[in-house]
Amino acid sequence: xxxxxxxxxxxxxxxxxxxxxxxxxxxxxxxxxxxxxxxxxxxxxxxxxxxxxxxxxxxxxxxxxxxxxxxxxxxxxxxxxxxxxxxxxxxxxxxxxxxxxxxxxxxxxxxxxxxxxxxxxxxxxxxxxxxxxxxxxxxxxxxxxxxxxxxxxxxxxxxxxxxxxxxxxxxxxxxxxxxxxxxxxxxxxxxxxxxxx
Length: 197
Description:
The protein is an alpha+beta fold. About 50% of the residues lie in helices and about 20% in strands. Strands 1, 2, 3, 4, 5 and 6 form a six-stranded antiparallel β-sheet that branches.
């Protein structure tokens, strides 16, 4: 057989075999990864509000994000109400957005108008840049007013300057921009949620 025919046939066969192998691995691992993400999300409903248990609180069903909240990459939220006086205790927002890469899955907690915690469920960012930013975000934002863009930016810049050697104020650029927009959308929504209960 002519070499001009053999080589493309060989390469095509290798590609088909590799594709089938990757599809098989994906079929085996996808349910496991999905379950781990769901478990992390369920734990995050309490952890992002710094709660050990939900005693004395009632958690809502997951509400679907709409409008500006959905446009910023939020998929839904739950809120907790104090059982004794039916006032809002706090809310946890679920999100999935894109930075440099797609697939940033996270939760953020807000109580009394302040960010209380952040849960990095999954991301595909470079571990030393966007990934480092995402895994450190909880330390950056805890206690910051949730709807104050200046306070949020200042808190992130202060943390980066003190903890990330050689990083500029633009550390993790696109990823940072997407996350700040999502966090601020949560803060604005929380203020309206608080006023409505």
